[in-house]
Design brief:
Layout (H helix, E strand, L loop, with lengths): L1 H16 L23 H5 L5 E5 L2 H13 L20 H11 L5 H8 L7 E6 L6 E7 L3 H12 L1 E9 L2 E8 L7 E7 L2 E5 L2 H8 L7 H10 L5 E5 L5 H4 L5 H18 L3 H15 L4 H29 E9 L4 E10 H6 L7 H10 L6 E6 L8 H16 L5 H12 L12 E8 L12 H6 L10 E8 L5 H27 L7 E11 L4 E12 L10 E13 L2 E6 L5 H7 L8 H8 L5 E7 L5 H30 L6 H10 L9 E5 L4 E6 L3 E3 L5 H7 L1 H5 L6 E9 L2 E9 L1 H19 L5 H9 L10 E5 L45 E6 L5 E5 L6 E2 L5 E10 L8 E9 L1 H8 L5 H14 E4 L8 E2 L3 H8 L10 E3 L5
Antiparallel strand pairs: 1-2, 1-8, 2-3, 3-7, 4-5, 5-6, 6-7, 8-9, 9-10, 10-23, 11-12, 11-18, 12-13, 13-17, 14-15, 15-16, 16-17, 18-22, 19-20, 19-24, 20-21, 22-23, 25-26, 25-28, 27-28, 28-29, 28-32, 29-30, 30-31
Length: about 950
């Protein structure tokens, strides 16, 4: 199929984008109008074709694709000089023309330039043949000379000759394009040009009485001229080739024998003896050759099964039809598989669509995601699997390999019950997907912690559950179904254990599973079915004799009017109880239209509108954002009052801060901006609070989209059986998706791009706080829970020594207010004198190496203790740190510009060094594997005691 793909792809690319074909060196095709009329291509090209593809109208297809692209194009984001193109019938094509040719394009202009007839049908046919498949491509033409240039550019001829066959002139082209067949024949017709890699195909199409394939023609007639792209696959021409498949069997058998012989020959006698001993001891197999023959038997049995099933399937199959109908708002995919075998395997009965529509009217359920199936027949044994087991067993017997395993598998499969489904109980079953919506609203709580705690009393709810509706069942029908289902599964497991116990004598199962169903009356005519899976062990742990695990799944059922309703996987029956009291007797207009559009005899359909949930999700996120703002603002106000209280001292302040109730869950630290003397809080990742709210901005950006979520969008898929045809139809409404992209882009352009000023600055004003990531701060207090996100974990974070915001006294009795230091917090840290290994202290803003007391280099020493840092005996140096002169200079005098910054980054990364205190000056890169191992090594030095970083004076 690769040549087919290349041929068709290149033809289409040339058709759409090759609008200039200046004269090239080499032979040229000069075609004039022929005498034979192609008419409908299917009449002349489908005979003996295995695949037939047709474009009904290239002009219509281009306009549909253009409209589809325009439905999602935000016009406000386009440059002003391009906006006038939006008034053309095909704006996207016009824009493409401006970018490629410097002039706007329309289908009419493109048609004239290419010489093609955009209103007529183009077709491609594939014919089976030994070796490379045969192809035929028809291009409808209005100007044969212009089409000649198009084909010349596509084929890149190396040699062109003209031959006369049966009164028709055929152009033979030696092709220079390596992606195409080496030789192509071209014939000019009255209404187009026909190309093929086989001259006989052209002569047959030019014949006075062309013969079309009945199946292909019937399917093309059924699709009609409204279908943009059509594909029909006809397996009948392949039937003569089916006889060739069994001829591959001797080659496979010989190849496997050769592989086995080679594998055994590569083993030494000692190796083979060792392997045989292992096989005999572990599996009771005497020789490795038995294992290889077992593998060969499985391969040959699988080959026989696949060939047999493929042959039977092809003999029963009439073909496959695929149609694609595009439009700017709705796209439809049609797939028909015609097979007698599939008709016999159909498991669903037709749905009474009128009853389903009435059920939806009666019940108050969210119908944005539903599926409906007709009555399901009980599954039968897989004939394919049975055939595979028997074929493989036959090969095992021929190769004199024990067949115990396959005999046991066949026995088990024949005795097993086929699974029971609820859909077998009623004429139709409707399933609605319910997305969990919390009843607790963030607006009702004062803190995020209280809101999260409100879920502690609620039973765990899954994200999505399934509500099933079916015509009312007879009393006890569900109970009988579930009990039989559990009993059959339990019996099947017991039978499997018994069969394998017979296969492996004495190998009794150590874990036993069983199933049971309990039924509880929940009141208000609601029943609860509890499906239980019991897992029991035959062994004990820590002296116990047996263990048991019971897994339970809840299913709530009730009757509402003439319907039985089941809620599967829910934690409680509240949703079902509410549903009983809330029948709306209305039907969503879009869903009503969808059901009315389903074909008669539909056996299964799905309907989904997933984008409708987006505004709800964003609104819930906005409620959470409001709660977080209220929570943190309240806490900051309380701390601010304490900081400004008269006579407040450090110790009293620290104590009272700890006594403030309800520390916000997302509160990380309290800081002060020294420049503005502004008190603010931070959230994880350094986000400052107060900050602008994001949801109001998002809400304004999607306002147009939110106004149409109930009117547009969605997809529907339906299946039905008509005679031997299994018909699938999928229709997608892309209006809402296109509106989301288009309205969001337009709103962004209006808010940020088209009002002057700096767009980036406007975006930052909407979503960022000026204090986000602020490095110029002093820390007042922090939440220990978020310690791992603080900027420097080596520095113990505590209270500020002094606060300049209020009259709180500092370290002195006079209560003088020292000025806050700018920049990151500077503390005393340890350094090591490289002259004698002694430890001294200096400021943390000093970049090593620094000048030590001895006059030599001093490097940073990271000191730790097992427990109390105050006991010098507990302290030890974990590792040393320094920088190369180049890296230190790069940090202290950073280069300007992005390239210089990148160079600095590499200098710093390569020049950041660490060493063990007893390594005698052996430095390694800090970011290397050895560097990480060195720094991680200290984690195990304290045993069960806590490892603590130590700082001078603390």
């Amino acid at each position: 199929m690769k040549p087919v793909y290349r041929f068709f792809t290149l033809a289409m690319v040339a058709l759409l984008v090759s609008v200039s074909w200046a004269q090239e060196r080499g032979p040229q095709l000069m075609l004039s109008q022929g005498e034979v009329q192609m008419g409908n291509p299917v009449d002349r090209m489908s005979s003996e074709a295995v695949a037939y593809v047709q474009l009904n109208s290239l002009g219509t297809l281009l306009k549909d694709l253009d409209g589809l692209a325009m439905s999602a194009l935000p016009e406000a984001m386009l440059p002003d000089e391009i906006k006038p193109l939006l008034d053309s019938p095909t704006p996207v094509l016009s824009l493409l023309g401006i970018q490629t040719l410097g002039m706007p394009l329309t289908p009419e202009v493109l048609e004239q330039m290419l010489g093609l007839d955009f209103s007529a049908k183009a077709a491609l046919a594939l014919y089976p043949a030994p070796g490379e498949p045969k192809l035929a491509l028809f291009l409808p033409a209005k100007n044969h000379l212009a089409v000649s240039g198009l084909i010349t550019q596509m084929l890149r001829p190396q040699h062109v000759s003209r031959i006369n066959e049966q009164g028709h002139e055929i152009v033979m082209v030696e092709v220079g394009n390596n992606d195409l067949p080496p030789r192509v024949f071209v014939v000019s017709m009255k209404d187009g040009v026909l190309l093929s890699n086989d001259a006989a195909l052209l002569l047959r199409a030019l014949g006075p009485q062309p013969q079309s394939d009945e199946y292909i023609k019937a399917q093309m007639t059924k699709l009609g001229d409204d279908c943009d792209v059509s594909l029909v696959i006809n397996p009948q021409p392949l039937m003569p080739m089916l006889a060739m498949l069994p001829r591959l069997r001797p080659q496979l058998d010989a190849g496997l024998n050769m592989l086995m012989g080679r594998a055994l020959g590569d083993l030494t006698p000692q190796q083979r003896t060792q392997i045989n001993n292992e096989l005999r001891w572990r599996f009771g197999i005497n020789d490795i050759s038995t294992v290889m023959l077992f593998g060969k038997s499985v391969a040959m049995g699988s080959f026989d099964t696949v060939v047999e099933e493929f042959t039977v399937g092809m003999q029963h199959s009439r073909g496959v039809m695929l149609g694609l109908n595009l439009s700017p708002t709705h796209q439809t995919l049609m797939l028909d598989v015609d097979s007698d075998a599939m008709a016999k395997q159909n498991r669903f009965a037709a749905i009474n669509l009128g009853e389903v529509k009435e059920a939806i009217k009666q019940l108050d359920l969210p119908w944005s995601q539903i599926s409906v199936s007709g009555k399901q027949r009980q599954a039968t044994k897989s004939q394919w699997l049975l055939k595979w087991i028997n074929n493989t067993r036959q090969q095992l017997v021929m190769n004199e390999v024990p067949t115990k395993i396959f005999d046991t598998c066949l026995e088990i499969y024949n005795k097993q019950h086929t699974p029971r489904q609820v859909q077998e109980l009623s004429d139709w079953t409707l399933s609605s997907r319910l997305i969990y919506e919390p009843e607790n609203k963030p607006a009702a709580y004062s803190t995020l912690a209280k809101y999260m705690a409100s879920f502690n009393d609620a039973e765990a709810q899954p994200f999505a559950t399934n509500m099933m509706v079916m015509p009312k069942l007879d009393a006890g029908k569900l109970d009988e179904h579930f009990q039989l289902q559990a009993q059959e599964k339990t019996n099947d497991l017991a039978m499997v254990n018994a069969e394998f116990t017979k296969l492996y004598s004495g190998a009794k199962p150590q874990i036993i599973r069983s199933y049971s169903v309990l039924k509880n009356d929940m009141g208000d005519q609601i029943d609860q079915f509890i499906k239980q899976t019991h897992i029991k062990t035959k062994f004990g742990i820590f002296g116990f004799n047996q263990h048991e695990l019971i897994s339970r799944r809840f299913l709530f059922t009730t009757e509402i009017g003439p319907y039985t309703v089941l809620h599967d996987g829910a934690a409680n029956h509240k949703r079902l109880a509410t549903l009983k009291q809330s029948q709306t007797h209305t039907l969503d207009p879009i869903l009503d239209q969808v059901i009315d559009g389903l074909p008669e005899g539909t056996r299964y359909f799905e309907y989904a509108r997933t984008l409708q949930n987006l505004p709800k999700i964003l609104a819930f996120a906005g409620e959470l954002e409001d709660l977080i703002h209220r929570d943190v603002t309240r806490y900051v106000d309380e701390v601010n009052k304490l900081a400004k209280a008269p006579g407040m001292r450090k110790e009293k302040f620290e104590q009272q801060v700890l006594e403030i109730p309800d520390m916000p869950l997302l509160y990380q630290s309290l800081r002060m901006d020294p420049e503005k003397k502004q008190l603010y809080a931070t959230l994880p990742l350094g986000l400052a609070m107060p900050r602008p709210k994001v949801y109001p901005v998002i809400q304004s950006l999607i306002a147009d989209f939110a106004d149409h979520v109930d009117d547009e969008g969605g997809a529907v898929m339906s299946m039905r059986q008509v005679g031997s045809e299994n018909q699938i139809r999928i229709t997608q409404d892309t209006r809402l998706f296109g509106r989301l992209i288009k309205s969001l882009g337009n709103a962004i352009a209006k808010r940020y791009l088209n009002n002057g000023g700096n767009p980036v600055a406007k975006i930052m004003d909407d979503v960022l706080s000026p204090l986000d990531g602020n490095s110029q701060f002093q820390e007042l207090h922090h939440n220990p829970m978020w310690e791992f996100l603080l900027t420097d974990p080596q520095i113990e974070r505590g209270f500020w020594e002094n606060i300049p915001l209020g009259p709180m006294a500092g370290a002195g009795d006079a209560g003088e207010q020292p000025q806050p230091q700018r920049g990151a917090r500077v503390v005393e840290v340890y350094f090591m004198d490289t002259a004698d290994g002694s430890i001294f202290t200096d400021k943390s803003d000093q970049l090593p190496p620094i000048t030590a007391p001895s006059g030599k280099h001093g490097v940073r020493a990271f000191v730790f203790a097992c427990g109390d840092c105050g006991d010098e005996a507990n302290r030890f140096v974990g590792w040393l740190e320094t920088y190369t002169p180049e890296a230190k200079k790069a940090i202290e005098t950073p280069a300007a510009g992005p390239e210089g910054g990148m160079a600095n980054y590499e200098l710093v990364e390569n020049g950041h060094l660490v060493a063990s205190p007893d390594s005698n000056g052996k430095w390694i890169k800090a970011n290397s594997k050895d560097g990480f191992m060195l720094m991680d090594k200290i984690q195990g030095k304290c045993g069960n005691q806590a490892l603590k970083p130590c700082f001078p004076g603390r």
